[in-house]
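Dear U.,

Please find below the material for section 3 of the report. The protein was modelled together with flavin-adenine dinucleotide; I have listed the sequence and SMILES used, followed by the predicted complex structure.
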Amino acid sequence: MKSGVRPLVLIGAGHAHVVVLRSWLRTGFRPPEGSMLITPDRYGWYSGMMPGLIAGRYRLDQCRIDMIELCERCGIDLIQDRVRGLDADNQQITLESGRHEQGRWLSLNVGSAPPSPDINAASIEVLPAKPFPILVEAWRRWRAEGAPPSVAVLGGGAAAFELAMALQASLPGTSVRLISGSELLHGHHPRVQRKARGLLREYRIDLTENRHVTRVQGKALYEDDTSLGVTDASVVATGAGAYAWPCKSGLACEEGFISIDATLRSISHRNLFASGDCAALPATPHAGVYAVRQGEILADNLRAALLRGSMKLYHPQPRALALLATGDGRALLSYGPLTAHNRLLGRWKDHLDTRFIEG
Ligand SMILES: Cc1cc2nc3c(=O)[nH]c(=O)nc-3n(C[C@H](O)[C@H](O)[C@H](O)COP(=O)(O)OP(=O)(O)OC[C@H]3O[C@@H](n4cnc5c(N)ncnc54)[C@H](O)[C@@H]3O)c2cc1C
């Protein structure tokens, strides 16, 4: 390693980086000595299983990957810390501990956090759905010490729907409400939306659509000045919002996300890769399934970068099949106009998710 400059710095233990490390293990590729991964959490959490965990259907250790062990097997240093700043021109990063690192190649896979309403003197817990450890910790406390009488889940996408169903399943004394800023499951076929609304009714989850909670004051939820009622706790699952620091770094960004091309490299800084939720690429939604697919190409392209080989191109799949967990062992299928909801689909989802965790 040239003094001080790491050959490769991976930032974030997201889905894509997990796939990269596993691919290198499988193919026997060893990254150059001094390569490192920076992650604040020792675990890589698998998003597909989070609703199942919250529903009480999985144990913690079934839903996460031990990055210390994975890095050790790959011969990569793991630094448990959080990046708080990046100087893209000099490929230098600053960590929360104050430490600095510089990489010949950088790869960002830091995910996203849901956009939050303004919280003015909230007397309730307002929990982001991501990063996962925060929500998981609160949920475990609720189970151990008593849950709030009511919880409002904010958001109307697949994650918000699944979390509302999961909380209802695992917190029997709590009344769960779902407040969606758009119509429920916007972008899914109306048949899927109808089925999802029916399931919420069946499980007595109150649904409010086309209302965007902009403010939490005390226990009260507001859309601007219009009251949307009160709640004892709130879980924010409003989709992917970009972290601020990557775009303050000099990288070209689009709506806060790092603009990349099909090689998964920044369009402005060619020694920097970005993948998963933190990246912006046309026709590529911010979802775990896309991050996983990008991981396969990223593994090859990082290796090509380190060995001066040629890069592969990532082509997003035109349409992804979605299996939404409904907290009861069943799953709701959404694939264009096709929909179904049953236990067999639940078992299929369990199988796919477990297969990912087991590598
Ligand atoms: C409840 C829920 C369920 C979901 N279910 C699904 C699903 O079934 N299918 C699907 O396709 N999508 C699902 N999603 C969306 C999915 O979570 C994201 O699209 C996916 O996690 C993105 O993966 P990623 O690889 O970009 O990063 P992530 O998996 O989000 O990981 C980011 C990593 O970066 C680390 N990190 C963050 N900031 C820093 C920093 N400053 N420095 C260093 N490291 C940092 C984090 O600790 C984490 O390890 C779900 C989302 C939620 C909230």
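For the text of the report, you could mention the following: Residues 11-16, 38-41, 44, 47-48, 50-51, 82-83, 109-111, 129-131, 159, 162-163, 237, 276-278, 286-289, 291 surround flavin-adenine dinucleotide (CB under 6 Å).

Regards,
Y.
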